[in-house]
Design goal:
Helices cover 26% and strands 31% of the residues. It is of the alpha+beta class. The chain has a four-stranded mixed β-sheet with strand order 1-2-4-3. This is Methyltransferase type 11 domain-containing protein.
Length: 105
């Protein structure tokens, strides 16, 4: 990663416990590839450990900050606790399922 990326576009891309192994340009490339791989209406789910680990060049929080800063992603849902962070990101605007299906005005 990020050089070994599958061809195609996907409804769901999951970055779980992997992105903090990338740093600098490699992390930027991984984020770009993940975003480019999303099919229209696709979802990117990211989950990473938040504690410092000597073998990780990037923290889980930094990974999620990079994802959240990408102009083609918006936060649909988030869960943050002491040990890990989970973000669900979609192309903007992030609209709840209830609102998108007309259950809410």
């Amino acid at each position: 990663m990020p050089g070994d990326w599958p061809e195609g576009r996907f409804d769901l891309v999951v970055l779980s416990e992997v992105a903090y192994y990338c740093a600098g340009p490699d992390l930027d490339a991984l984020v770009a590839r993940a975003v480019e791989a999303l099919a229209p209406g696709g979802v990117l789910a990211a989950c990473h450990w938040r504690h410092a680990v000597a073998d990780y060049p990037t923290s889980g929080d930094e990974v999620h900050e990079r994802l959240r800063a990408h102009p083609d992603l918006a936060v649909l849902a988030e869960h943050v606790e002491e040990d890990f962070r989970l973000d669900v990101l979609v192309p903007p605007p992030a609209v709840s399922v209830a609102r998108a299906t007309g259950l809410l005005p």
